[in-house]
Design brief:
This protein is mainly α. The chain has one domain. It is built from 4 helices and no strands. Helix 2 packs antiparallel against helix 3, helix 2 packs parallel to helix 4 and helix 3 runs antiparallel to helix 4. The model has no long low-confidence stretch (mean pLDDT about 90).
Amino acid sequence: MKNVLYKNLVISAIFINILSLIIYISLVKDRIFIFVLFLSLIGVINRQIILNGLCVNREKKIFIYSSFFLMLTIGFTYNVYVNSI
């Protein structure tokens, strides 16, 4: 599993971020806000993918970081939208 995770690091990081966003949106719909605590864990997982990945260059790092921050932005924007209604 680690071999696949670190070989295809951009795909695996984007998959983790999209899956986290889907879980976050479904929990916000149900008014469960405990997932905010796990966002730091997802950031640590992304960082471990970058540190232990194979052939990591600056472009891949920027792509992984931007997908993580895009996931955070979409999630928090959706949270504000749902709670303001």
